[in-house]
Automatic annotation (TrEMBL):
Protein name: hydroxymethylpyrimidine kinase
E.C. designation(s): 2.7.1.49
Organism of provenance: Leucothrix arctica
InterPro entries hit by this protein: HMP/HMP-P_kinase_dom, PM/HMP-P_kinase-1, Ribokinase-like
Principal EC category: transferase
UniProt-listed NCBIfam families: HMP-P_kinase
Pfam families, sorted: Phos_pyr_kin (PF08543)
């Protein structure tokens, strides 16, 4: 009879990412997209829901902000038990919610914070009042390692016109730097006439240009949520900011490229978060 000696192994530290955002009942954006992206890129996702939307691939029909006390309790529950390395912040419906989230991030001081400033609807309508935008800029942005505005959101943050080409994007760099954030990823996905989707990663003293081939598909619901969550996931795994953004852009590009393999809904469907199984890059 053979015998062997049992050895105990220390489990590897699990990279944990908290998403603070609204729920999308259609499953393509918001908390649902965040959890899929974080999971697909190899981290563990937890969440605090700030609002419940009635939403599908055709649009949003209702928004119910979660009471402040319950947002606080969700954040306390997660932070006091789980070793949250990175936080992704998405939809914050009003000034009071922004203040609560900022206070809790200050209290628990996670290592990384990525903010996707969900401010402008696809229709062009503002989702946040001007007072809430001011609070976002003054209270929450100083806590961020990265903010990830698209072009309409960049315009709303700077007071400039929505860029119509890459030269307009470059003209926005100075105003975005004036927001006094660590880094800004200005996403050029709205420049649909371009063959490539070009983004600018803006630091106080340098700018990195990131390019990916533009994919012809209507299934792009939740791309901003997905990208910012993937970046937070890669940060939690120990990658630096530039590498995390590059890996995140590669992930979202592939998820868009495989989006038409899904048939979800009658409108703008989601990207394919799980196009290639487990995608952790360490």
């Amino acid at each position: 009879m053979s015998s062997h000696t049992a050895t105990s192994t220390q489990p590897l530290s699990t990279p944990i990412v908290l998403t603070i955002a609204g729920s999308d009942s259609g499953g393509g954006a918001g908390i649902q997209a965040d959890i899929k992206a974080i999971s697909a890129t190899g981290s563990f996702a937890c969440s605090a829901i700030t609002a419940i939307t009635a939403q599908n691939t055709l649009g949003v029909s209702a928004i119910f902000p979660i009471p402040l006390e319950h947002i606080e309790k969700q954040l306390d529950a997660v932070f006091t038990d789980l070793n949250v390395i990175a936080v992704k912040v998405g939809m914050l419906a009003d000034t009071d919610i922004i203040k609560v989230v900022a206070a809790k991030i200050k209290q628990y001081n996670p290592q990384f914070v990525v903010i996707d400033p969900v401010m402008v609807a696809t229709s062009g309508d503002m989702l946040l009042k001007e007072s809430a935008v001011a609070t976002l800029k003054s209270v929450l942005f100083p806590l961020a390692d990265l903010i990830t505005p698209n072009l309409p959101e960049g315009a709303a943050l700077t007071g400039m016109s929505v860029p119509q080409d890459e030269l307009d994007m470059e003209k926005m760099i100075g105003q975005l730097r004036d927001l006094n954030v660590n880094a800004v990823l200005l996403k050029g996905g709205h420049l649909e006439a371009n063959q490539n989707s070009n983004d600018l990663l803006i630091f106080p003293d340098e700018v990195h240009s990131l390019s990916a081939k533009r994919i012809a598909t209507k299934n792009t619901h939740g791309t901003g949520c997905t990208l910012s969550s993937a970046i937070a996931s890669y940060l939690a795994q120990g990658n630096d900011l530039i590498q995390s953004v590059k890996l995140g852009k590669r992930y979202i590009s592939e998820a868009i490229a495989h989006a038409d393999e899904l048939s979800i809904g009658q409108g703008h469907g989601p990207v394919n978060h799980f196009y290639d199984g487990h995608l952790a890059v360490r």
